[in-house]
Amino acid sequence: MTVVDVRETNRRVIEQFRAGGEVEGMHRERLVLLTTTGRRSGEPRTVPMMYHRDGDRLLVVASNIGAPRHPDWYLNLAEDSRVKVEVDGREFEAEALPLLGADYVRTWIELEKHYPFLADHQAKARQAKRVIPIVELSEED
């Protein structure tokens, strides 16, 4: 069994993404770099992740591959919703807003159509009584 060093993989992906070239093993056009403020350290924490466009909205999903707990980046933005976003050759400050209610339900259904693997993530998360958040990254003026 191969053990993947997630921190090293993220470091490499971030470096390749910022260099502007190909991102090994990933689809560059589907990647966003999200920088949150560490809830304990107060330090900037950057993670690469897949994003989805819903009209003008930029969305990310805190699936954590269906793990029983939310990913660290989500826990960070739950403490401080101000984030930095790097996508499509742009960098901007944004507010991270979790979707709620009917908007969440409608968006989740749409996301599962585009990314069927999310249904498996949701099933795993539900076993731990966790609902996978969907977050809108809303550019600040």
Straight-line distance between termini? 47 Å
| Largest sheet geometry | 7 strands, antiparallel
Q: Which strand order does the major sheet show?
A: 2-1-5-6-7-4-3
The SSE order reads HEEEEHEEHHE
Structure description:
The chain is α+β, with helices and mostly antiparallel strands and 141 residues long. It is 33% helix and 30% strand. The chain has 4 helices and 7 strands, in the order H-E-E-E-E-H-E-E-H-H-E. It has helices at 6-19, 72-79, 101-114, 117-127; strands spanning 31-37, 44-50, 52-54, 57-61, 82-87, 90-98, 134-139. It has a 7-stranded antiparallel β-sheet, sandwiched between helices. The longest helix is centred in the first third of the chain and has 14 residues, at 6-19. The termini are far apart.
Compact description:
The chain is 33% helix and 30% strand. The chain is α+β, with helices and mostly antiparallel strands and 141 residues long.
Keywords:
4 helices; alpha+beta; 141 residues; seven-stranded antiparallel β-sheet
Q: Secondary structure elements and their pairing?
A:
Layout: H1 6-19, E1 31-37, E2 44-50, E3 52-54, E4 57-61, H2 72-79, E5 82-87, E6 90-98, H3 101-114, H4 117-127, E7 134-139
Antiparallel strand pairs: 1-2, 1-5, 3-4, 4-7, 5-6, 6-7
